[in-house]
Amino acid sequence: MTGSSSNSTCTAAAKVNKHSRSKSTNNYRSSRSITGAESAASGSTNNASRSSGGGKEEKDGGVLFYVNKSGFPIDSQTWERMWTHVAKIHPEGKEMVDRLRIAANLPKPPVLLVPNFKPSMSALDWLLVIQNYMKTLQYNHTGTQFFEIRKTRPLSGLMETAREMIRVSLPIKCLEAVILGIYLTNGLTSMERFPISFKTQFSGNYFHHVVLGVYCNGRYGSLGMSRRPDLMDKPLAFRTLSELIFEFEDSYRKYLHTVKKVKIGLYVPHDPHVFQPIEWKYLVLTSSKMAHEEMRKEMEKHARDMRMKILKSSTAQSPIKERRGKSLSPRRRQASPQRRHMRKRDKSPAMIDKKPAELSTLNDVAYQIRI
Question: Which of 11, 134, 286, 367 fits a 20 to 30 Å CA distance from 229?
Fold first, then answer.
């Protein structure tokens, strides 16, 4: 997490501003839909960024951070901007930056080996291996997010970004950790993955954080990255989705953060080549306006709908993206009016294949319905 002080909890990779998704730097100049307190806290820095024409700038909790949009190798403008920002936010300031940049014998950072899943591993063991791999990459404290994650990008494109994370082995923030976690669990089809986002408030500022929720063998857990050890991975031990979410809320209270919103997406497909985006916020709960029991019921209904989606889907390992407010059952071809009338009460697969008694013979009407 990113935060405005050392006492506040630190969220990784704030939620991407809708106006900043374009590759044009001019889009940032129009993305001013943020709170007045945050604008006042960083107005001078924003002006400097606009005049320099640099890359994209994000903020979380009133604290600015940048996103590397130049790819790899990092271009000189992004590189210099990162060091300038580090000099501003590091306690030792420019002295530390100069000391590092002129050092001649700095150790070369290692390229980590990609963890390999073994058939003898349990789901719990594999999650532990993945989380340890992320911790070895380390959390990114530079104030510059090295990998651009656009939430509207197709899953296949995000998986390319995950492969790049493995190739360059640089520190990551929470949004990058979610994409990397999806990539490393794609082969484990018995495990379902879905994004969980939090919006919290501390000292008048808002903070954003995201983790990857996992479900396997009737238990929930999570993968992720954060400066705080209890705001990232959770063991695969929670019997319900609400228990997992409330555990995160308890962890936030330790850092005097108030959870304002919780956003839960849908299961992410295991096929890394699908051309559909991740559903990040199918269910949005405003914690400050809902009772504890009401939130629990909504989350359990959402979890049940996702599980039923798997039971009803015979052609995909994970559900495809559905429009908000629509049924979670798989899409099917448009049926004739007679067929729709027969399916009105029961939409289970068993009823779809069952023929009405009066149309059991092969006549024109029955043939039309089967078509």
Answer: 286
pTM of the model: 0.69
Per-residue model confidence as pLDDT tens digits over 300-352: 999 999 988 753 333 344 444 444 444 444 444 454 444 444 444 444 444 44
Residues recognised as catalytic? 174, 209, 226
| Tokens found for residue 33 | 């839909």
pLDDT in tens, 188-215: 999 999 999 999 999 989 999 999 999 9
Cα dist. 69→23, 26, 29, 78, 251 in Å?
Answer: 8, 14, 16, 8, 33
